[in-house]
Amino acid sequence: MTLHLPNRRSLLRAGGAGMLGLSLPKILRGEERTSAIKSRAKSVIFLFQWGGPSQLDTFDMKPDAPDTVRSPYGPIATSAPGIQICELMPEMSKWMDRVSLIRTMTHKMKNHASAGYYALSGHEPPSDDQRLRDSLDLYPAYGSVVDHLMPNTNGMPTFVAYPHVMRDGSVVPAQHASFLGKQHDPLFFLEDPNARDFALPELSLPQGLSVDRLQRRREMQKLIDQQNRMLEYSNQARGFDQYYQRAISMLTSDNVRKAFDLSAEKESIRDRYGRTTYGQSCLLARRLVESGVKFVTVYFSNSIGGRRIDSGGWDTHGFDDTRMYKIVDKYHLPITDQTLPTLLNDLEQRGLLDETLVVWMGEFGRTPDINKNSSRDHWPQCYTALLAGGGVKGGYVYGKSDTHARFPIENPVKPEDLAATIYYLLGIDPLTEIYDLDHRPLIIGGNVVKDVIA
Description:
Strand content: 5-15%
Number of helices: 14
Number of domains: 3
Shape: globular
CATH architecture of the largest domain: 3-Layer(aba) Sandwich
Helix content: 25-40%
Distance between the termini: 41 Å
CATH class of the largest domain: Alpha Beta
Structural class: alpha/beta
CATH topology of the largest domain: Alkaline Phosphatase, subunit A
CATH superfamily of the largest domain: Alkaline Phosphatase, subunit A
C-alpha cells in the first residue's frame, strides 16, 4: 500500500489548524479539504445524455432566430417567469421554477470520445480524437473520486453506474476509477432495469456456495496472493483485494439487495417513470440514493445514435434519411419529459430532493445551423446543463448565449467548473489533490459556479 504524503501547502495550512484538533491521520485521508465546506447534497444522480442534445431544441430556444437556426418546435412558457423551453416538454415546464440552467457550457472537443471523457471526468483530454482510448493515465469518473475521498460507511456502495458502457468505436475513458485503483470502481452492471426478470447476478451466490465457504476460499486466495506478491507488482490488480472484499460484503447485505429490488415498487410508480430502460434506470437511481448510495450515473443509451431517430443517443445528424426534424420527435424528448420531472417529483415527495443533486447533460450541444439533412451536427462551443435539488437555486439561468446559441456572451462554464460545483455541493473542496500512478498531485476540479448555489 502506498502512502501519499500531503503537499507543503496542505501541511502549512494544517499546522495552523493543529490547535483546533486537526490530526495527522485526518490530513493523510484528505479530510482537511472536505470538512471545511458545508455539504449541501448527500447524493448525486448524474443523468448522462450520450450523443449530445441540441440546446436549441431543449432549454435554450431562440424563437427570434432565422428559420435556418431556430427549432421547428415552438417554445412554451414555464413555471419560472422568463424561462421558455421546448413545447415537447410540457411536464418539465412545470418544474422550471425548481431547477437551474447553465446555458454557457463550453469546450473545444468535437469528437464524442474526447467530449465524453471531458464530461464524465471534468478534465480536458490530451487530444480531440474519436479514437481516444481508455488509459490509466486519464482521470477517473466523478463517483470514483467521491469514493476515494468520501467513501460510504453504511454498507452501501458509494458509486453505482449502469446500464450501458459508453463507446464510440472504443470505450470512452472516465467510466471507472482509472489510476485511483480498482477498489474505487463503480458497482457497474449491464442488466436492463426494464426487464421483467431484472436482477444482478453480482448480488447472488452461485448455487451450492455458502457465504462461509466463499470466505474460506477468499482466505486461501489471500495466502496465494501474498506468496506471489501479485498485488504489489501489478498496477492492473491494485485494489482488487479491497474490491473483492466489498463484493463479499454486498452479497451478505439485505439493504443492498433491497435497494436493487425494483419489483418492490408499485406498478403505478413504475408506469409513471416509463416502461423503458432509461425510465426504470431513473427509478432505480431514486431507490439507490434513498438507500444511501452517494453517486449514481445513469447512461441514456449504449450508442450515440447517429442513424436512428427512435433509439440510441442524441446524435441525430440525419444519415440515411433519418432527419432530426423529419417527424415530430417521438423518442428523445418524450422520454425526457416523462422521466426527468417524474424523478424530480418522486425525490421531492420523499423528502430527498433537497439533499440529492440531479445533473442532466450531454457531452456537447448541436450546431445552430441546421444542416442539409434537416439535422444538427456536433457543437461543443455552447450548450446547456440542467441542475436540480441538492443546494442549487430554482428558476435560475446562469450565463447567456448569443442570439443563435452559438457562443457564450456572459459567464462561460467549462466542464471542470461544473465538476468543481458538483464536488463543492457534496462538501468536497475542488482544490483537493489526488495522485496519479507517478505520484504526481492533480487537482480534481476547476472554479465553482457559486451563483447557482442557493
